[in-house]
Amino acid sequence: MAALAGEGKLVAILGDEDTVTGFLLAGVGHRTADKTNFLVVKGDTPVSAVEAAFNDFTTRDDIGIVANDIRHLLKSYTKTIPTVLEMPSKDQPYDPQQDYIMQRVSGMLNAET
């Protein structure tokens, strides 16, 4: 079980097989009889299944960070914990104009000046 230091929180992962496997090999995987902290998203995975996993992960008390790729849900997500990180896809080039976190940071930095 991989927990955030002192908090007892898990990292949840929604991603392609390579990304999820990397996180699992790093030791962040956690499985109980009725749930896990990861979802492998393939080309044929229904968006509804990814949305359901995201909604589940962001409402669980044992999750501290969610790593995923569901832009339409990320834009309306405002909670600090669990923190949501969007990782660029290995199949597409990184576009900072599409990165909602960078947009929020840029907006905060511009507001301070």
From TrEMBL:
SUPFAM superfamilies referenced in this protein's UniProt entry, alphabetically: AtpF-like (SSF159468)
PANTHER family associated with the record: V-TYPE PROTON ATPASE SUBUNIT F, VACUOLAR ATP SYNTHASE SUBUNIT F
Family per record: Belongs to the V-ATPase F subunit family.
Annotated InterPro entries: ATPase_V1-cplx_f_g_su, ATPase_V1-cplx_fsu_euk, ATPase_V1_fsu_sf
Keywords: Hydrogen ion transport, Ion transport, Transport
Descriptive protein name: ATP synthase
